Amino acid sequence: xxxxxxxxxxxxxxxxxxxxxxxxxxxxxxxxxxxxxxxxxxxxxxxxxxxxxxxxxxxxxxxxxxxxxxxxxxxxxxxxxxxxxxxxxxxxxxxxxxxxxxxxxxxxxxxxxxxxxxxxxxxxxxxxxxxxxxxxxxxxxxxxxxxxxxxxxxxxxxxxxxxxxxxxxxxxxxxxxxxxxxxxxxxxxxxxxxxxxxxxxxxxxxxxxxx
Length: 211
Fold this sequence. Notes:
This is Dystroglycan-like. It comes from Dorcoceras hygrometricum. This protein is 48% helix and 10% strand. The chain has helices at residues 2-14, 22-31, 52-58, 74-83, 102-111, 123-133, 140-151, 163-171, 192-210, and strands at 19-20, 33-35, 38-43, 46-50, 95-96, 120-121, 182-183. A 3-stranded antiparallel beta sheet has the order 2-3-4.
């Protein structure tokens, strides 16, 4: 699952340094807004502008491929309904996380930005997971930048995330001198090794719970 996610064009996005400048990040979200298809914020009294081109270029995101989950073939969706299911029976495209296999719950958490924040899997997110699982080329530049724009839109319910990525962009701004930083604990960073360990532990616990 994780390898599929990286091979879809997210290697640079998921492999960025996990260093967080908490105060600067807080200020970024407090002052951010969308103008003319760019995300703009004021930090330390200075304006910072993030365009889709800058966002995509910083993390080597592909800018070609599927831009709408509505483009997915029905056979892909029907196959995923069974492949994702923990019970083996086809699940709905709008379902609960616990109805899915562990690896797809993790994929859902990655796509929702904030792990464990939502128990429900939306129809749109299910279809995006289907595209990733099926190896369909995705325009991650558009998908992820639209998510960032939602994060800074007051009326949106999108969880605020991309913390490490935003900090990479802020650090790249020549006009800013960022404050104190914190590094994510290794076990909280989703890499192939930690995902494999998590899944192995879950699979080990399941037979014990049934006894």
